[in-house]
Amino acid sequence: MFRMLLSLAAALAVLGLGCGGDDVVGLRLVRVPTLDPACGDLGSASSVRVRALGEFPAGDQAAVVVSADGGEVAIESFSPRLQAVAVEVLGPDGTDLLVGRSAAFDFSDVEDGQELPVFLAAPDGACEVEGMSRARVGPRLVPLGDGALVIGGVDDDGPVATVERFRPAAGDFEILGDDHFGTGSGGFIGASLTAVGNRAIAVGGPVTAWQAWELDGTSAGPQFLPEARAFHAAVAIDSNRVLLAGGCSQVVTGSQSCAPGSALRTTSVLDIDSGEIERGPRLLSDRIGGTAYVDVDGTVILVGGTDLDGSAIASGERLELGADEGVAIANLSGASSGQMLSGSVVVGYGQGAAPS
What is the mean pLDDT of the chain? Predict the structure, then answer.
């Protein structure tokens, strides 16, 4: 069965989830600490709505409302396939005082009593958390567990080499040391950073290397990458492989750009368990700084980016592993893109294009 015990005093809520029978797994929803304790004040809270998010039909996205004073509520309507929860703290008149959600999680990995941090802020607002150790422009950031890993970027002195992990339970960033391939003069310029299974994977850039960080922030250090690739698109295609697409083979020293004549139309699949690389489909055009998504059918959608002259690439490509080359998709010049929690990819509002 499913149960929830709400306690706004010590935590946000305790969510009890079960797959049947009498076994119940309790998830404790806790607020991510903020720099200003007054940000997102709970003083006038009347009730809390918790809504299930996951890869299931809209009709299964159940929600429960419980009193802010606490209590236990049966929530059998929550699917065991939920991947995250959305939280709304409601005032006496039913309006949202605070809204937020948890990071995505795998229900099969949940342990009884496990804490699940939830970011909360006023609608259309934000609550500041503890800052990074270094200011940086244009860093790479991916989810890692219930937090995030940050690499790269630049400051007034050039490329930033510091690798940091955001810890939501503490609301701060932890420096992970300097055993990584970004300590050279080029830092992580042009490298990709991708969440692959329960790891964060940095690939390429100014050096031929890749590196994995585990959930606890540990790493085995840099590994050799048998190809030169920078400013490429990267996406996880399963729990231990990442597709690398396009980009270039050489970064101009001291800059954030590709060398003339270095554009790549190749794709590669890196196996992070074996370190081996396999060739993937060839691209139809140069694409520097593109973005890749895995669609629900398993194909990869590649959008955005520029050519070596900085001109925007007007079309996207759909890549199928095992095929010789990609297939062009609609005119997407100037479009925005994103991936939903269900896995669906939304691309739309490009010049002369309809949302799709």
Answer: 83
**Phi, psi values for residue 109, rounded to 5°:** -95, 0
Question: Do the domain assignments include residue 356?
Answer: no
Residue 79: pLDDT over 90: no
**Top-confidence residue, 129 or 348:** 129
Residues 112 and 159 in one domain: no
What is the per-residue pLDDT across 111-160, written as a single tens digit (0 to 9) for each? Answer: 777 778 888 899 999 999 999 999 999 999 999 988 999 999 999 999 99
Cβ proximity of 134 and 155 under 8 Å: yes
Structural domain boundaries enclosing 90: 3-121
Q: How many domains does the chain have?
A: 2
Q: Is 134 within a domain? A: no
In this prediction the pTM is: 0.79
